[in-house]
Amino acid sequence: MAEKKGYPGYPGYPPQPGASGHNVTVQHTTVHQKPAPGFFGSLKSEFNKVGKQLNKEIDYCSNKLNQVVDTHAAGAMLELFKTGNVVQLVSRASGRCLEIIALQNGQLAVDGHGPSDPQAFHTHWTVTNEGSNQVRLHNNHNYLTIHNGATCLINMPPGSNHGIETKFQLSQSGQFILLESLKERQRHIGVLPDGQLKPAVACGREDHAQFGVHVIYTPYPTSNVTVVNK
Asked: Which portions of the sequence form the region Disordered (predicted)?
């Protein structure tokens, strides 16, 4: 990725509503105060509070259990993520590859509309596996990360000290894998059917977060791995 000419063009984003001189109409609404609830109304409110708290605790325990299971899981798809392997991630939602694109301002970004061509370098992700199914993925040292609920890239030159921000918990669901941020737990890299990124803050373990895997290169014996021919 030394030369940006290899990246597809990108038209840029539309202006945000209310920006660049757009008029914004504010609608004022009259609020009518409800009368105070009676005894049974108060009792129902307390039951609702207890129910919400129980749901939170159940979700917390479920998430903790998933985290333990993911770190000890084994599977054919997980075995593809060995250090030094180069892979393409094919979105289950869009049917296209996760790719790096160049924005008009020169910054690099990610979307899920890349070609499956093995020679499409901007769709290649080099794996660093740090054990417990925890991986880092980069293209020419541009590392995938989730920052403030959004999937983006961070450049880490060789020799840099990596923090947890570029590390993902890898898990498998059938024939697909998922990538959950270790810094922002329960947030996954995800793609919408049109190829646009789904905000990681709203992306759990649904289809949008699932990817198929093509191995483009491996330094290991290939008896158990099918490498896509270039």
From this structure: 1-23
